[in-house]
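seq:
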Amino acid sequence: MYCGPVVPTDPLIYRFYEIMQVYGMPLKKVIHEKFGDGIMSAIDFTLDVEKEEDPNGKRVRITMSGKFLPYKKW
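struct:
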């Protein structure tokens, strides 16, 4: 039985979920504007996590890099 999307309960994972809920569609529009219609690969993909020092407290920098895959027309 399908009960709809499952919202993560882990606080850190929930923040990623929240980021995509808020910024997912704007990110998609920016990617389509810069690259055309398509997606970012999750297979040909790298992710880097760095710590940044900041006067207001440590910050987390996450860099995602995925190959752009244009939609194919059938």
